[in-house]
Amino acid sequence: MKNLIKNILIVLVFAGMIGCDTFEPIDENRLEFDDISVFPERAEGILLNGYTGLVSQYSFSEAATDDAVNNKLSNGYKRMALGELNAQFNPAARWNSYERVFWMNRFLQIINAGEIVWSRQDDINKLFYDRLKGEALGLRALHHFYVLQAHAGKNASGELLGIPYFTEFIEADGNFNVPRLSFEATIQAIIKDLDEAIALLPTDYTNSAADIDAKYAGIDIDSYRKVNGAQNSLRLSGRIAKALKARVALFAASPSFLNDQGYYNTAANVAADVLNTIGGVAGLSPNGLEFYTSDSNVQGDEMLWRGTIGGNSVTYERRMFPPSVNGTGEINPTHNFVMAFPMSDGTPATQANGFDPQAPYANRDPRLEKYVVLNGASFGGGTINTGLGGGIDRLDSIPEFSTTTGYYLKKLLQPEVRINSDGTTSGKRHANVYFRYTELFLILAEAANEIGGPDSQVNGISARDVIAAIRNRAGITQPDNYLASITTKDAMRELIRNERRIELSFEGHRFWDLRRWGKSLNETAKGYFFDGNKYIELPSVEIRNYQPFATYMPIPNAETIKFSELEQNNGW
Predict the structure, then answer these.
(1) How do 372-373 and 408-409 pair as beta strands?
(2) Where is the SusD-like N-terminal domain (predicted)?
(3) Residues 500-512 as b or e (16 or more Cβ within 10 Å = b)
(4) Comparing C-alpha atoms, which of 175, 172, 191 is closest to residue 183?
(5) C-alpha dihedral sign at 433, 92, 513, 395
(6) Residue 439 half-sphere exposure, CB side, CA atoms within 13 Å?
């Protein structure tokens, strides 16, 4: 009772004090922009928004191309491929990347005011300023590129347009109603930001004094490590910014856009500059083919830029494994894709070159078995038969689970994952990959060939050199007589495009490559089925139905309604 009275008295005293306005309202502990100069880590928190929304290999946009069919009827890429793409329904839209652009502009506004102090030591403070500003500029360029890649296009008059390029932070009540730049002006703005980022960033984040750029000569090594040490190795670096510049320049140079030798030169030279730092074609990672199959591979020499390696999971395997091993078989590679793999000696898979339609997987490029679950293959803890007698793995036996093409996806999946019938799982770790060295090698090959043909040297590397190294790594029988027979720019172009299709398959490239090359989007998806006695080609598993102007995708309808200056692409 004594304690109860004591507590009541305490409550009454506090109630009286509050009634007499003795206490002021407390700080709600909310972050205000005025606090940022006092707490530098809060400013960096704004910058970190730029690392959200990065495009990794897990989009599975191939279902909207000739490489795959998604067997889920509600899948956005499936619906797009079947003819539903429009200005109000576009699963490949990237207009929301502007949100990250404005975060970067807000950070740059803050940092350029010069009020933030990261350290009382001037050299450390300058290192922080340069690095973080470089990151923001590079990320601003990248997110603008995402928007451009998805929404550049020709207007009703045939003019090739880019996108609005925002270099200032705009308050909510500010003017967002600005016109699109020309395509080339947008490219130039992106490259300008990347060039500034390259100048400010270290080539690599390192703790080794021997690997520090010459521009940091005279900086104390301990000070350098505090700011640009290996602890930042997953963040945007000068090396990554150069690779992005090569990617942007190749996109700009492509036939659907500027078809320009100058940008091919930029792409080739920048790519070669980076690749020569790893030894040129000798630096092609021997583990690059299956970079996703182990922690050591995903942390290895193939990785130019990746995210954090996550914990054990079965998310992607559950989506992609065949139903007999407790997956939902979502992505089905097409027979079109399977026929892109050459014979084991590197010649195209045609009957003239030894292809047997009744032994379709014999004597083929070893990459085929690595990337596609073929009829009769062992995978996921079981034997997968997609033909007659295959049970629930048989083609079309269970709607939205069983394959529609005769194939299941193998690439990007951890081979040791198990999804057990009792609900237990044995997961493996995965990582988002943003840029692989193999892509950079293929950028160099494509650009170098367009500049001067198969043997044109760019800083000591030719398209032939690159393709020879890639095919040798793949296990193509040596000597590669088919490659040796390629002597013209046109023939090498087709070979490079096919190697890119295989090497970068199911990493989100094919959807954009077909558009930048101006290739048909309406190639019908084919399948292949074993009926118990023989294999039968299924010539029309899924008919593509893109509009003739779908090379250039629409600006979101909601944006063109809100902003009168925002001109729509032709046809939408």
Answers:
(1) antiparallel
(2) 68-206
(3) bbbbbbbbbbbbb
(4) 191
(5) positive
(6) 26
